[in-house]
Amino acid sequence: MGTAMQVIHEIIQGKMHTKPKVALDTCCVQYYISKPPVQPWADCLDPIFQAGLDGKVELYVSTVVMSELLAHVHFVNRHQAGYDLELDLLAILNRHFQVLDVNSEVARAAGRLRGNYTPGDKMVLKTPDALIGATSLANGHTLFITNDAELARALPNENCIYLKELALDWLAQNFPAGCVDEARMVSPTYSGMSLFPDSTIVTPELGSIRPDPSVDWRRILADAFTVATMLNEPCVFFLLMRDEESRTETIEVISWYEGLENVRRPDAVIRRIENHLGYSRRTGRANNSNHYVYAFCFTSLARERSRQSQPCYASKSDPQKEINAWDGYLRILWRFRSALNLPQTTWLLCEDGVARYLKPRETSQFLDQAKNVFGWEDGR
């Protein structure tokens, strides 16, 4: 069996003897019909919905899905009055789906599904979820799509796609290709004065240092590559610079990695950068026009994938390992996302020995959608 995206493409390209029948779980429908749609899930599901509109596949939902969607509509609009809450939803469902009743055959299938899927010797599937999955099983659907991990594990692999597996394809398509300037790679400089000799501590609470002011930022990039290699985990270096008459000076260098979370919070680092720039959160402007920042973000998807191959993770499924690898790969950018769009700040993505300029706006937009894949919270 190919990747989730390959399975979808095979189905919608009409390579089957009969018209494919595809059923969706409640959350998948909700992602797509929300205003605005919930990303990246809506983009992942769009080929299926378009294939349904084009008549290439038949789309189905259970009456349980209808019930759950109606409950959501009534809940979010409970303080409004004056229009039919159900009208728009039922119109959407009737346009895209055939709605299937829960009959005695489905009820029996749901009982078998819930009673036989007992990881840890416990029944973990909720009855509504089991009924939704069993509706697809009992009606012989080609495919069922869900974003519920337990339901995806309970159903046969050949008939079920876990939506997060589709998100893996979305991640690979959008990062880093859509977020870096491929034409502007940066080569470190290994000659000249290094970062380390004669450096002094500036702020103990941030662990920042002051190098010789004349050290070139590309030379610091070379030293940062060395430190990141030794550290062997995602990390970021901030170079606080200024133009002083006819010369450029490095005022301060701040480094951060995940292990420092409890003693050196990212928001404290970001506040220091804002102070250096004279940045106002109210106006969105930097008042220190001759101050600027370089940010070097070191991370590696290949390294995170290698970590997930360790024996201690053997119980994970391959898709879960890949999701966790992407989480480890991107999380450091999420930590410092509010600094991505600071004025007079230049970001470099440093991965596997290569440094490329990050596009701040595109990276921010990508992270705002990727957070839904990993469950990142805005406070972190």
Structural features, described:
With 380 residues, this protein is of the alpha/beta class. It is 44% helix and 20% strand. It has 14 helices and 15 strands. The model has no long low-confidence stretch (mean pLDDT 92). The strands form 4 sheets. A 6-stranded mixed β-sheet has the order 6-15-14-13-9-10. The protein has a 5-stranded parallel β-sheet with strand order 3-2-1-4-5. Strand 14 and strand 15 form a beta hairpin. Helix 2 packs across helix 3, helix 4 packs antiparallel against helix 5 and helix 9 packs across helix 13. It has 2 domains: 164 residues, Rossmann fold; 200 residues, no CATH class.
Could you give a short description of this structure?
44% of the residues lie in helices and 20% in strands.
| Low-pLDDT stretches | none
**Broad shape:** elongated
User: How many domains in all?
Assistant: 2
Rounded average pLDDT: 92
Structural class, by secondary structure, is alpha/beta
Distance, first to last CA? 37 Å
Please, how many helices?
Answer: 14
Instruction: Summarize the biggest pleated sheet.
Output: 6 strands, mixed
- Number of strand elements: 15
Q: What helical percentage do the residues reach?
A: 40-55%
| Relative strand content | 15-25%
Output the helix-strand order: HEHHEHHEHHEHEHEEEHEEHEEEHHEEH
Query: Strands of the biggest beta sheet: in what spatial order?
Result: 6-15-14-13-9-10
Q: What Rg do the Cα atoms give?
A: 26 Å
